[in-house]
Amino acid sequence: MRVLLVSTYELGHQPLHVASPAARLRAAGHDVVALDLAVEEYDPARVAACDAVAISVPMHTAMRLGVEVARRLRSEHPDKPIAFYGLYAAVGRDPAVGAVADHAFVGEYEPALVTWVRALEGAGSSPPVVVDVGKTEFLVPARDVLPPLDRYARLEVGGEQRIAGYVEASHGCRHRCRHCPVPVIYDGRLRTVAVDVTVADVAQQVEMGARHISFGDPDFLNAPVHARRVIDAVHATFPDLTFDLTVKVSHILEFGYWEELARRNTLFVISAFESTDDRTLRLLDKGHTAADMTRSVEILRREGIEIRPTWLPFVPWTDVGHLRDMFSFIADHDLFGATDPVQMGLRLLLPAGSLLLELEEIGSRIGPYDPDALTHPWTNPDPSVDDLQRRLADLAADGADRGTPVLETLAEQWRAVLEASGEDPGRAVIRHPRPVPRLTESWFCCAEPTELQRDRVGTSGCGC
């Protein structure tokens, strides 16, 4: 059977969540083709030639775009089997979303995908929704089904751009941050990928020209012994490769491995700071304080590793003072060079099953679940804060579409916050930020899709 695997967005990386299931389906004897709508045009001929379509939805942005693609597919090919798979595929339980897809496979989705395709051939049956976080043996991803690596995000460092690859050494997370979709599915479970599989995947990306590798695990130090084995093995095989990792603030403070990671060419660490308000951090169950964030910056910079924090500025109890303090923290810690404007306009998502729905602070502000937005809508008690969120998000989207320098957009956002708080917007001056390595893709997994992204997947203005 010929299966088409579709990706709409994977943070600018060549999509692992196409390459990995492609390997598993091939091993089961199926013909696999791929379509990455982040870098390719929608191809009606490729769709028509396949027997079934599976759409990768590892994050909110991908799911929003994936639903639009599924609607187009359903309108053009009413009888073609369609499935969603990935972390956000649980949204497929919603009747409105279920109308455009037959199946949804959540968590460790690869065995369910194989079972589904086998059932389509008449060999057994497949439940419409499968949530599986059991242990899975992963194969070396089949990256040859995808466009070449040089079509994707690159590392910017030292005035040059380098081709960048992407791997995951583990899935799931041991922590239960309330705003994160991972614990809703994995509930504290962690699944590791064999070291030799990870090294082999890095090897094929190096062969494609990669000089930098992003480890995209929800938290690379969830399993610190495994993480060290992975880094040691990859570095021993490819001593010139550089890396970036994603790590919780609490793990930055707890683990004394940073000198070794620096020696193994770790350039920067992505860490979910989220807020400078300690009450917000407690409600999100982040396990750290604003003071801990300062310490984490100091620890990493002492070893020559930069930090790239992620932020969640807008929650139902945000006030303008919180936003002013966040920009002040970024300025005081010289983090503007490590900040992407899209993050300063991010608004809390409340998907079905979110752990935050249990909080009293949330309950009084939310509305019924919106299947189009894939979230429970909410409002701030102060309507001007919601207006400010839209202003910052629009500045980020406009800046990205027009190619405005990042620091100019950040300064505009900072000025908007200062004006809203009644302070002098002239304070919003960014001078000589420290140069920080970064990837050329600046969008974010929880951001709303832009019209440009919808254009790329072929659904903008089509009424899908």
Shape: globular
Poorly predicted parts: none
Distance between the termini: 28 Å
Helix content: 25-40%
| Structural class by helix and strand composition | alpha/beta
- Average pLDDT level: 91
Quaternary class: single chain
Number of strands: 15
Cα-atom radius of gyration: 22 Å
Strands side by side in the biggest sheet: 14-13-12-11-8-7-15
Largest sheet: 7 strands, mixed
Proportion of beta-strand residues: 15-25%
Describe the protein's architecture and organization.
With 464 residues, this protein is an alpha/beta fold. The chain has helices spanning 16-27, 44-48, 60-76, 95-98, 110-120, 182-186, 195-207, 224-237, 249-254, 258-263, 278-283, 290-302, 320-332, 360-363, 383-402, 406-420, 451-457; strands at 2-7, 31-36, 52-56, 82-85, 103-107, 129-132, 154-157, 160-167, 170-172, 190-192, 212-215, 242-246, 266-274, 306-311, 438-439. Strands 14-13-12-11-8-7-15 form a seven-stranded mixed beta sheet. Strands 2-1-3-4-5-6 form a six-stranded parallel beta sheet, with helices on both faces. Strand 11 (212-215), helix 8 (224-237) and strand 12 form a beta-alpha-beta unit. Helix 1 (16-27) packs across helix 5, helix 7 (195-207) runs parallel beside helix 8 and helix 15 runs antiparallel to helix 16 (406-420). The two termini are 28 Å apart. The relative contact order is 0.12.
